[in-house]
Amino acid sequence: MKRHLTERELIEYQFKLASEAQAEEIAEHLKDCGRCRESHEKLKRKFAALDLLRDGTEVSEGLISRVIEQAQVGISDSILKKRLLRFARNDKWIGAAAAVLVIGLLLLVPLFKKQMPTREFAKEPDALKEEIELQKQAETAPAIDLDEEEAIEMFAAAKEKAGAEKLLDLATGEILEETMAERPPFAPASAIELVVLPRRDKVQLTIYNSADLTLVRERRNLTLKKGWNWLQFMWVNTLIDPTSLSLEPLYQAGKIDIQQLVFPARLRELGRWLIRSDVSGQVPFEITYFTSGLSWRAFYMGTLSADERKMELGGYVRVTNKSGEDYENAQTRLIVGKVHILDQIAELARRQYPYGRPGEIRGRAGVWDASRGAGIYDHFLDFDEDEELADLKRKEIRKEGLSEYFLYTIEGTETIPDKWGKRLLSFEAEDIEVKSLYKYDEQRWGPQTIRFVAFANDEEHNLGETPIPNGTVKIYSQAESQGHLSYVGGTNVKYIPVDEEVELNLGPARLVSVEPILMNFETDNFLYDKNKDIAGWDEIRTWKIEVTNPRTLPVEIEITRGFDTAYWTLQLDGRDVSYEKHDATHARFKLEIAPRTKRTFNYTVTTYHGLRQEALTE
Amino acid sequence: MDNTDESLINAHRRGEPAAFGELVRRYGDSVFRFLMRMNGNRELAEDFFQETFKRVHEKADTFRGGQFKSWLFTIAAHVAIDGLRRRRRLRVVSLEQSFDCADASGEQLDAVAVADNSSNPSDEAIKTEQTEQVRRAIALLPAKQRATLVLAYYQQLSYRQVAQVLGCSIGTVKTQMYRALRTLAQKLPDLSGDAK
Questions:
Q1: B residues 3-32 lying closer than 8 A (beta carbon) to A
Q2: Which DSSP symbol is given to A372?
Q3: Which of A20, A63, A554, B25 is the most buried (most CB within 10 A)?
């Protein structure tokens, strides 16, 4: 190789990217060529900088424990599932029990055939009513006192009376057209007749941080049959509020009617929608409901520059899911603002029955009505009453009364599994001009100086694109010589609208101090009433204020003094100090203190009492 | 208990809780360092760390033998690359916004000050600055080049292993590595101080 090596060849040689033959050739060349050797050494020195990142960063014990803990919750679940599977596979008695049950049913059917003559449901509409009554009894009876065998008997009798095939057809929707249009079927007794709720296609979460409330909108494609369909929705082990459930078709709305959502007795934590469809096939639906357990909070990290005139601000949002449900690829929206809710969603979710126990007197659709001696199915039959029908079809959810609020949307989608939290970057802004300020007000904070950082959420401060949600702020400052960070203070901020100024209270200052000293106190100008009692007087106090700034930066300080009366006058003795009347009972002094200096000023305040107050007014 | 990686992952699959913990402790530091170098932000690295081991836990049944370390870093690399691509920002939108799920991506790294133990403050400041330059230079690399560099150089995986982790050929890995190094050659600080 006569030519000199290129940078590419040197890099490939150094990082073993070249083939063996090439590497050998390059090595030979380097032996003979001083210039290439020098380039090679220079390159090696250059890439030696990469080793600066070979630090000994270690993962914290807390994070490891958290990961293990979170996994163990999952492990217990999977063990349980595996054990159940093993149990189902190995225990032969289940098969035997199933066989006994089937034989028992076969023996019972002929027995009831003899007792009850068979009727054709399609030809005799009254049979349907009877069948409904029977099945209703079969549904309600066990809630009173009926064992499983008796329930099976009742159900078998109902089937026999109305025609077993027809009953099945009712639930699945394969019934005669004219009957379908008029008569809704029972809530099915088993899951066999149900439309299975498929996986979500899309999900949107709107999380309110002022209340434990999240609005979930799911999009799912349901496969409907022409006719009546039952759709089952379960919320076991979640914090979903069943009273807020709503289902809407996104297409073919005119041909699909969501008739009712029922909560069958004896079956906890599930609801069944009755859907009448004039079409068959897949239809996209939107299911909406409220859930509890999802929350979000904003927090911010600010870093002050060495001269404390600029700040970098990073905003983050942490979304936490403790709702009992995994939300995959969810579009997530965050609401800032007060929401008025009538009920705590978590409590609604934990209720055994969505609207109270069966048998309670409510008298409206969707609940059992013991006073009428029957259940929900009476309402299905009273179709001619318009008002009743309206109640059947729509459930009004009056859970929210939104006032002023603001919405943030996380771009794209996020998967937020149950029991997991997720932190997202909200914004980053550099070179925010800030005002570093100290305040002293004994009546508010006691005898200590409080440190503030002030800025505005506007374009001038490299912010102002969005309002800033309320959250916690931690402020760090850069140590002057080494660029290391030190913690300055933290506070909670309220919602900051665009173009609004904000002052962050960073807590007591460690170095800058204010010390007021009472130098003199006297009373004067006494007035007496006709009984020669004191009716008015002046109190004259002279204060010396010492302000110390041991820092290497100049500071601006605001000292507020209160007099507990609106009748006062003040005389200032000090150069470069000014004051203003802050309100009726307070004066406020503003001054700048040079680095590593102490400044003192005096003022005399006269307060007027009793009849002397009138003298001041005059 | 046999303490090889494979026996631990098998034990975890059987539902032994201690096995997963042992794996997390064994590889915690190296996975965390990898994630730190990939994104330069401790908080984000912690999130990715949780996500990585969550996937290890959930996908344990899909581990088909072979090197556990490669499998683990495959997951970590996917988490890091996806995370970097999908880092999202909040934005304010109208309440009337339609129910859609537009994706947006952005790759950006946070600078993190690195402290070291140098005794001389001046040297320490220089070294901190140089470390920062290295971090910034790596941060400028596209996600795949960065993953290749971190896995091959810092995690000291062979190019074959890197290819396995990133699911590509050795040739692709070498190309990515070369491109990363070519970029870095322009951006890295010169420690000897004789270069511009």
A1: 12, 15, 17, 20-21, 24-25, 28-29, 31-32
A2: G
A3: A63
Indicate the angle between helix axes A125-145 and A148-162, nearest 10 degrees: 180
Q: In one letter, which amino acid is B131?
A: T
Q: Are A231 and A272 in contact (CB under 8 A)?
A: yes
Structure tokens at A524: 């004067």
Q: Is B182 helix (H, G, I), strand (E, B) or coil?
A: helix
Nearest-by-Cβ selection for B188 from A49, A79, A317 = A49
Six-digit token string for A424: 């997202």
Distance, in Å, from the CA atom of A245 to the CA atom of B47, rounded to the nearest integer, reads 33
Nearest CA in chain A to B85: A412
Q: How confident is the model at residue A517 (pLDDT cuts 50, 70, 90)?
A: very high
- Rounded CA-CA distance A562/A489 in Å is 27
**Contact between A575 and A600 (Cβ < 8 Å):** no
Between CA A76 and CA A577 the distance in angstroms is 70
Residue A158 or residue A375, greater confidence? A158
Q: Once rounded to an integer, what is the mean pLDDT over residues B120-137?
A: 78
pLDDT for residue B26 is more than 60: yes
Residue B160 burial (CB count, 10 A): 11
Answer for the pair A478, A306: CB distance below 8 angstroms, yes or no: yes
Q: Which of A372-381, A482-491, B74-83 has the lowest mean pLDDT?
A: A372-381
Interface contact A422-B28, CB threshold 8 A = no
Residue A239 and residue B196: Cα distance in Å, rounded?
Answer: 62
Lowest model confidence (mean pLDDT) among A43-47, A180-184, A490-494, B113-117? B113-117
Give per-residue pLDDT as tens, A256-288. Answer: 888 888 887 777 778 888 888 888 888 889 999
Structure tokens at A513: 């101090």
Q: CB–CB of A15 and B181 under 8 A? A: yes
Q: Compute the nearest-CA separation of A286 from chain B (Å).
A: 11
Query: Residues A237-262: what's their mean pLDDT?
Result: 85
Structure tokens at A591: 């001054």
Q: Please state the rounded mean pLDDT for residues A565-592.
A: 89
Question: At A141, which helix (H) or strand (E)?
Answer: helix A125-145
Q: Which of residues 124-183 of B touch A (CB under 8 A)?
A: 124-125, 127-131, 133-135, 138, 152-154, 159, 174, 177-178, 181-182
Tokens describing residue B15 = 């539902």
The residues with which A559 forms a beta bridge, in sequence order, are A440, A589
Q: Give A8's contacts (C-beta < 8 A, 6+ positions apart).
A: B178, B182
Within 8 A by CB and 6+ apart from A93, the residues are: none
State the complex-level ipTM.
0.73
| H or E, element range at A465 | none
Contacts of B40 in chain A (CB under 8 A): none
Alpha-carbon span B8 to B63, nearest angstrom: 12
In this complex, the residue of A7, A54, A55 whose CB is nearest that of residue B185 is: A7
A514 and A545 Cβ atoms separated by less than 8 Å = yes
Task: Specify the amino acid at residue A91.
Answer: D
Question: C-alpha angle A365/A366/A367, rounded to 5°?
Answer: 95
- From chain A, the residues in CB contact with B105 under 8 A are 412
